[in-house]
Design a protein that fits this description.
By secondary structure, the chain is mainly beta. Helix content is about 0%, strand content about 55%. A four-stranded antiparallel sheet has the order 1-20-19-18, with no helix packed on it.
């Protein structure tokens, strides 16, 4: 595990650069996204803090985050504004070069948005709502431009999780993972049609409460062999082997 308490004591979002050499954590106490460097890819024990970027100008309760594969677009959930906020990075993966672009309201569907995820080509966006206990799916007519997003459909995760906090899709979009503070576990769903949440069906759950009773962030290595969980109560990231 790796502590982020020196930078954030209310961590909520977790993201890794695709090659595993950088990690990002945001939260609502310091209201910033923190950047870390990993000298050995995907190995938390080699992580070191680099710098941060304030999100306070856009929202007082920033939750979760996501980067485009190029590292030039950054998104985070604004709990206060009930929206998704987009920043542009002039230098890829360097949060100090971020500048605000725009916001997209999800208030027509969500009352407690707390997690966001994008399809790898940027044409779909997914927002999880812990009050509605559902995942909302949006289509983007212009990839990675949230101003072109339109709502498609919703999928309830309530039978498995009362307080869902984060979501993650497999790279091909045929598996969905949900983590929350209601069941303290990772719930897995399979999608018969990739990236179409209306085709999701529950598969199984894996407990995570022995390390953290309030998980808020979830991420997998691209090949699925490693899983990472961010915890609000312990201010730590936990690394698991799934092989």
């Amino acid at each position: 595990s790796f502590s982020v308490a020196g930078q954030e004591t209310a961590p909520w979002g977790l993201f890794f650069k695709p090659d595993g050499t950088k990690m990002y954590v945001n939260g609502y106490n310091q209201k910033a996204v923190n950047e870390y460097s990993l000298s050995t890819a995907w190995d938390l024990s080699t992580a070191s803090y680099v710098q941060n970027f304030s999100l306070a100008a856009q929202d007082q309760y920033p939750l979760s985050m996501f980067f485009s594969p190029s590292g030039t677009d950054m998104y985070f959930v604004g709990y206060s504004g009930v929206d998704i906020n987009q920043h542009s990075l002039s230098t890829a993966w360097d949060v100090s070069t971020a500048s605000y672009v725009q916001a997209f309201s999800v208030s027509a569907q969500a009352t407690g948005p707390c997690g966001v995820f994008f399809k790898p080509d940027g044409t779909k966006m997914y927002v999880i709502d812990y009050l509605q206990k559902a995942v909302n799916e949006y289509s983007l007519s212009t990839a990675w431009d949230i101003s072109t997003a339109s709502f498609l459909q919703s999928f309830s995760v309530h039978p498995q999780e009362n307080w869902p906090n984060a979501l993650f899709f497999s790279p091909n979009g045929d598996s969905l993972f949900i983590i929350g503070s209601g069941g303290y576990d990772v719930n897995e769903y399979t999608l018969s049609t990739a990236w179409d949440i209306s085709t999701a069906s529950y598969v199984r759950a894996s407990t995570a409460d022995s390390q953290e009773t309030y998980p808020t962030g979830l991420f997998f290595k691209s090949d699925g062999s490693k899983m990472y969980i961010l915890g609000l109560n312990t201010d730590r990231i936990y690394q698991y082997s799934t092989a």
